[in-house]
Amino acid sequence: MRTVDEIFNEALTLPNASRVVLVEKLVESLDFDEDTTHIDGAIQELWIEEAKKRIDQIRSSAVQPIPGEEALARVRQLLES
Question: What is the total count of domains within the chain?
Answer without folding.
Answer: 1
